Amino acid sequence: MSITIKTAQDIEGMRVACRLASEVLDYIAPHIKPGITTNEIDRLAAECMVQQGTISATVGYQPPGYPPYPKSLCTSVNNVVCHGIPNDKPLKKGDIVNVDVTVITKEGWYGDNSRMYLIGETSIAAKRLCAVTFDAMWHGIVQVKPGAHLGDIGHAIQKFAEGLGFSIVREFCGHGIGQRFHEEPQVLHYGKPGTLDELKPGMVFTIEPMINAGRREVKDHGNDGWTIVTKDHSLSAQWEHTVLVTETGYEVMTLSAGSPPLPSFVTSTKT
Ligand code: MF3
Ligand code: CO
Ligand code: CO
Fold first, then answer.
1. Which one of 102, 113, 206 would you pick to mutate in the ligand 1 pocket, going by the greatest count of ligand atoms within 8 A of its CB?
2. Does residue 258 fall inside a structural domain?
């Protein structure tokens, strides 16, 4: 398989799926406070998807070598890097949590996005990690245009985050997306300018850097087949958008009323 090029009609389908995925994050946002459990967040998201007429891409998702994923979304708290499984433990003041939602529309299109949420007042270090990771994602997004290369995206993210003393997780990457959850290409969050595939109008992929406050190494949590944690127990953050390569630049597709404001160095969600 190679990188699919979406038609104008495909892009319409992706716009709907991506907006709905973002609206699930809007729907749960007001509830994410000290005391809520990640299972309650999962239930709220499942309820929202029923109202939308979408289904979760993660329930029952089973790549080779993994057990079926049991929940409607991923909730990765503090030192959890990604793929955290919702449970009955309440979130507490000072926690940070990534909520990662992927929906499938009736027409079969996937929209994938995630945001960080701060639980009550957090440490300055936690706030800074979340803010730097958000900006790092956007430094990657603004590289996207026809003729640029995937390595330009990874390089921009790496230079920014490592320049501020943070580290980039290497084991997981962004991915092409469309009528399948994960398709080509892999979108690394580190790299060298001018390397890897050249971007062409109609490509759609995610940019979803995982950035650690400490060392970059990760390990399996061990008992559920999914949860990934930092090896040194340091905090980890992640943000994710699904992005279209347009004729002239990029279009961020996973946007809705509750999307956070753009970083100061970004002028538009679409160029
Ligand atoms: N949404 C994640 C991604 O960004 C994948 C989650 S797979 C799951 O690619 F099975 F862990 F939910
Ligand atoms: Co995701
Ligand atoms: Co993704």
1. 102
2. no
pLDDT, tens digit (0-9, with 9 covering 90-100), for 167-215? 999 999 999 999 999 999 999 999 999 999 999 999 999 999 999 999 9
Query: Could you say which DSSP state residue 29 is in?
Result: G
Task: Say if 270 falls within a structural domain.
Answer: no
Distance between CA atoms of 114 and 211, rounded to whole angstroms? 14
Region 69-73: mean pLDDT is 98
Q: What rounded mean pLDDT belongs to the chain?
A: 98
Rg (CA), the chain: 17
Residue 65 has pLDDT above 90, yes or no: yes
SS3 119: coil
Q: Is the pLDDT of residue 1 over 90?
A: no
Domain containing 199: what range?
A: 8-252
Q: How far is ligand 2, taken at its centre, from the CA of residue 92, in Å?
A: 24
**Based on the structure, what is the number of domains in the chain?**
1
Q: Is 46 helix (H, G, I), strand (E, B) or coil?
A: helix
How many Å lie between the centroid of ligand 1 and the Cα of residue 74? 7
CATH number at residue 136: 3.90.230.10
| Cα separation, 83 vs 77, whole angstroms | 10
Q: What is the pLDDT of residue 2?
A: 92
Which residues are 102's β-sheet partners?
A: 112
- Could you tell me the two tokens for 106? 């009736």
The predicted model scores a pTM of: 0.98
